[in-house]
Automatic annotation (TrEMBL):
InterPro entries on file: Epimerase_deHydtase, NAD(P)-bd_dom_sf, Sc_DH/Rdtase_CS
One Pfam family of this chain: Epimerase
Source domain of life: Archaea
Protein source organism: Pyrobaculum islandicum (strain DSM 4184 / JCM 9189 / GEO3)
Family: Belongs to the NAD(P)-dependent epimerase/dehydratase family.
Classification via PROSITE patterns: ADH_SHORT
Residues in NAD-dependent epimerase/dehydratase domain copies: 3-230
Protein name: NAD-dependent epimerase/dehydratase
């Protein structure tokens, strides 16, 4: 079976590629290396450098299964960037899948599709009410996936990831905290008021959840399915700051910033994927954050 991973030089995508190669799959990575890094790509995978915004990105590429993990992950990016990198790119992947006879597309969605959900933990049937253009772009991607599944038989599994952390990450609060403290260990500014609460999942566990969900989906008859992928607990941003500072062995003055966060609360219910695929995380949010910081510090050193 030939597997294509878009964004396979990025954070989650590169870890997924490592696991697929380890399990014996023939893997093709498609990445434009705008944020992904060549050194992230497993040497046993074939790297095809192309921009998914180009309708002809897939010249010379074939696959049975597509894991679509490419996209701009920065929530605060300009709206047009999200439209082009996360909506246009997803459309081009789906259209190529339709024309190429791809059996299944696994789409990396996000917990941001729920916005500031009033139900916590948030189940999959909660309304999609994003409060950021990034979240809206992911919701649009899910809608396109579901429509292509119904109209053209391109089966699609959408995975709504919580905050995934671990080595190779180059964005998000934990990475920002580490980089700030490496420059100024005496002070740390936290965006928002620090009380925003989210769950955190280590990337190794996110990859395990991805593969288990995909394999179960292949056994099912549904054309489209959306599943949450997160942890069973959550942390405030101040909790995360404390874990990072303790792990780094520094004691800065923590200052609350004025810039609002994307979502005040993001805590997903994972009962559906647990029952369907038999998956639950082994590490808590606290353990996931601490392990990610330790790995990131080692990597940066």
């Amino acid at each position: 079976m030939k597997v294509l991973v878009t964004g396979g030089a990025g954070f989650i995508g590169s870890h997924l590629v490592d696991r697929l190669v380890e399990e014996g799959y023939e893997v093709v990575v498609v990445d434009n290396l705008s944020s992904g890094r060549r050194e992230n790509v497993n040497p046993q995978a074939r790297l095809h450098i192309a921009d998914l915004k180009d309708p002809d990105w897939a010249v010379g590429v074939s696959a049975d299964i597509v894991f679509h993990f490419a996209g701009n992950p920065e929530v605060r990016a300009e709206p047009r960037v999200h439209f082009e990198e996360n909506v246009v790119a997803t459309f081009n992947v789906l259209e190529w899948a339709r024309l190429s006879g791809v059996r299944t597309v696994v789409f990396a969605s996000s917990s941001t599709v729920y916005g500031d959900a009033k139900v916590l933990p948030t189940p999959e049937d909660y309304p999609l009410e994003p409060i950021s253009v990034y979240g809206a772009a992911k919701a649009a991607g899910e809608t396109m996936c579901a429509t292509y599944a119904r109209l053209y038989g391109v089966r699609c599994l959408a995975l709504r990831y919580a905050n995934v952390v671990g080595p190779r990450m180059r964005h998000g609060a934990i990475y920002d905290f580490v980089m700030k403290l490496r420059k100024r260990p005496e002070e740390l500014e936290v965006l928002g008021d620090g009380t925003q609460r989210k769950s955190y999942l280590h990337v190794e566990e996110a990859v395990e959840a991805t593969l288990r969900a995909w394999r179960k989906f292949e056994e099912m008859g549904e054309p489209y399915l959306a599943l949450n992928v997160g942890n069973v607990d959550s942390l405030t941003m101040l909790d995360v700051a404390k874990i990072v500072t303790e792990t780094m062995g520094v004691a800065p003055v923590i200052k609350v910033g004025r810039e609002p966060s994307d979502c005040m609360n993001s805590f997903l219910s994972i009962e559906k994927i647990s029952k369907l695929a038999g998956w639950r995380p082994r590490l808590s949010s606290t353990e996931s954050v601490r392990k990610a910081v330790e790995e990131l510090l080692k990597e940066l050193a």
